[in-house]
Amino acid sequence: MAKFAKLSFKKDELNKELSGFFKGMLKNGAVDAVLAPMALGKQGVRLTLVTSADNIEKVDPFAPIAAVSGAKIASSLTSRPSGRKVAMVLRPCEIRAVVELVKLKQVNLDDVLMIGMDCLGRYENTDFTKFQEQGGTSESFLENAQAGKTAMGDFDLIGACKICEFPAAENADMRLCAIGSGSDSVFIEAVTPKGEEALEKSGLKTGESPAGRDDAVKKLVAGRNEARDKKFTEYRAETNTFEALSDKLAACINCYNCRVACPVCYCKECVFITDTFRHTGEQFMMWADKDGMLKMPNDTLFYHLTRITHMSLFCVGCGQCTSACPNDIDLMPLFRTSADKTQARFNYQAGRSVDEEQPMAGFKSDELVEVTGQVK
Amino acid sequence: MSEFEPKIVAFFCNWCTFTAADLAGTSRLSYPPNIKIIRVMCSGMVDPKYVLKAFLNGADGVLIGGCWPGDCHYINGNLKARRRVALVTELLKQYGIGEERFWLRWIAASEGNMLKEVADEMTAKLKQLGPSPLQNKGQMVV
A63, A155, A182, B139 - which has most CB atoms within 10 Å? Predict the structure, then answer.
């Protein structure tokens, strides 16, 4: 049975109350460190690793920004473990990416207390600056976003968030619940025994559960599902041939930023920067000879398609690829539409469960008979 | 105008399907020259990149030949190949390269006649389908 602690706050004091909760956990030894979004003045809001209870004041988990995917940070912190307990405050998409990285042995959750926050979406990094300039705060965002008011002048939430079906975190030990919890309180939920122990140590009293939460989440998800289906239909109609897809990717300069930003692009060294793709001048000339010309840099579509074969099964739809593109190519729908097909083929859902085997990590002798259609 | 001759890139495993092609040859069975064979050690080493590159460079079809399940020289490379083929099929289908252009078939070393049948069947099918949508787009698209 899930346990909830209600955290009421006065206007403009949400983060103060939250910092009190984290401070309690640090002081009482529930964890040795906290990784959470912090307001760092002019540097904006960034994931910050805090080991001293005195420095937790500026925590700001609900700020609508994710400059990099927290899953990559989780990998940095735990792939070679420190042995110290750390609470990680991450978005649902980041946790889902973490789940995939655990299976790839690039994240180790042994010493991690996973705290998932309710996520109503994020703005692009540059838009977040504008959001702050216009006086936006996490509190105003939570209130407006739940009323469906996310557009601020010339910008809005990123496309990925508008079609995200996972506003509430799964696979977390604790959750920061803001959806349907009223405008003057948030709830801290302990989901696992590990979470319950930490909640107890934090010194907060458990009690009342957020009555309107389940319905509010359901309603939000239903709207997002509808938006997703519409987006998929549109994008598929626009990219139903390789030529059309190539046109979509016309601005690509092969910088590979999308794979650097991708939390589930798991190779330590990408094949596209290895000798496999360091061709000789003679080779390029031969390719150019074939049609009398060759666009440079070449292999643009080949790169994106190869990336799809590598990561589409693990794609969590976080939208970091789109955010990272210096030429404003909206890559998210490309990877999400593909991921939708490939994950469905293997009845797999990225981020659903740590115990679910990744499709390319195994095989059975009596499966997928339809591929060859041959029976002995 | 001469009839359309499809180009089919075929990745044959060294132990079964390539040996079957050898057997077809020594048995004097003739199969269409549209099949361009690339010998690989195992169907399980056919990287999705090979398949993508073949199609992007204008191949009309790709055929992967491996050992029957249970017969793989490396125990289970063919089963890994099957999952990978299912994955790449899902990708290609979205952009107009359907399953009819991308085949995986089990052909044992003793099945020279079956190799001929598969080669005939695939060539006929692709002649009927016509050129790949990527044909002659070449590096303009890639």
Answer: A63
